[in-house]
Design goal:
The protein is mainly β. It has one domain: YVTN repeat-like/Quinoprotein amine dehydrogenase (Methylamine Dehydrogenase, Chain H). Helices cover 4% and strands 52% of the residues. It contains one helix and 28 strands. It has a four-stranded antiparallel beta sheet with strand order 1-28-27-26, with no helix packed on it. A four-stranded antiparallel beta sheet has the order 2-3-4-5, with no helix packed on it. Strand 15 and strand 16 form a beta hairpin. It is globular, with a radius of gyration of 21 Å.
Length: 337
């Protein structure tokens, strides 16, 4: 009998035991330097460029080769929070006022587009090749035709939008951080068709990712620091898991079935989707303090984050105020296996 029990026990460990950690780590910290503030980072996977909006006196959108992290140029005189590129027209856009439009192959400017509100987030949607400029003040969303650069209309979301994602089938999902909910937008009509409440499971939701194939939203919240998994179909909450503090971005890799959440406390939380009803925190990676936004390199599976080092806060400073950016310290942090 003992002989027969041994393979059964081993089988139980193999089937039900805790799976090994994904083993992600920081594999590169590219100190690309440059002055000015920063917010979002965006990977143009087809064009192999990384776009990073930088503020300050020399406001511009800095562009780096995604494979070498060497400067590829910039979109000058553009005070933006983020950028996005349309995969069909290869036109790039900035979340700025006015919006800058350029040729992503040459980085040559095409035109500027007048918009209202206070541009912050941005989304390029391949469903009908439109670019969405998000604003915390009205109008919450401005919709631009990615080919012509024409403004097609605006959207009243009923709250302050942060990150947005598309399912590629005509539905846009938008974090409403001041309403603790996610708005659903019809990409054809540019109208809100539903609003999914977090039902007290989380608040101040700033990051959003999607498993479009299986209809799962990953809603990253700051209060408390949790990830809420939600159905795209009806907003049903599937699960809630802890993440690091100060999240400001999330992304899903369908090849590995993993959601990545970046936090200002210098951590990257990796949540594994084992099924549409089972999710686990697979790993927490130490990155760099302030690395709160991220983007996915779909070719390599690498996660790209941005951060910088800061000097001591001024004497008498209170709260979250920090010192000046250390010259040359701005970095692109690459996480992979």
């Amino acid at each position: 009998m003992p002989v027969l029990l041994l393979p059964i026990a081993l089988g139980l460990v193999s089937t039900f035991g805790t799976p090994p950690a994904p083993d992600y780590k920081v594999i590169q910290t590219a100190k690309v330097g440059g002055e000015g503030g920063f917010d979002y980072v965006y990977a143009d996977n087809a064009g192999r460029n990384v776009y990073i909006a930088r503020g300050g006196q020399n406001a511009r959108v800095a562009v780096f080769n995604m494979d070498t992290m060497v400067s590829a140029g910039e979109i000058a005189k553009t005070n933006a929070r983020g950028a996005a590129v349309d995969s069909k027209s290869h036109h790039g856009f900035s979340s700025s006022k006015p919006v800058a439009m350029w040729d992503s192959k040459t980085l040559a400017p095409i035109k500027t587009i007048d918009v209202k509100g206070s541009p912050d987030g941005i989304l390029s949607d391949d469903f009908n090749h439109r670019t969405y400029i998000w604003s915390h003040s009205a109008p919450n969303g401005t919709v631009i035709d990615s080919a012509s650069g024409d403004v097609l209309g605006t959207i009243d979301l009923g709250g302050a939008p942060e990150q947005a994602v598309t399912d590629g089938r005509g539905h846009i999902y938008v974090d409403l951080e001041d309403k603790d909910s996610v708005a659903v937008v019809d990409a054809k009509t540019m109208k809100v068709t539903a609003t999914y409440s977090l039902n007290g499971k989380g608040a101040a939701n700033a990051g959003l990712a999607i498993d479009a194939k299986n209809g799962v939203l990953f809603v990253a919240c700051r209060e408390p620091s949790v990830m809420v998994m939600m159905s795209t179909k009806d907003g049903k909450i599937l699960d809630t898991l802890p993440i690091g503090a100060g999240c400001d971005g999330a992304v899903f890799n369908p090849k590995t079935m993993e959601c990545f959440s970046s936090q200002g406390d210098g951590t990257l939380t990796i949540i594994k989707e084992e099924s549409t009803t089972k999710f686990v925190v697979a790993q927490t990676v130490k990155t760099m303090p302030g690395a709160k936004t991220l983007t996915l390199d779909t070719k390599t599976g690498h996660i790209l984050l941005i951060a910088a080092e800061y000097g001591p806060a001024p004497a008498g400073a209170t709260g979250r105020r920090r010192g000046p950016l250390v010259p040359g310290s701005f970095s692109i942090v690459v996480v992979g296996k």
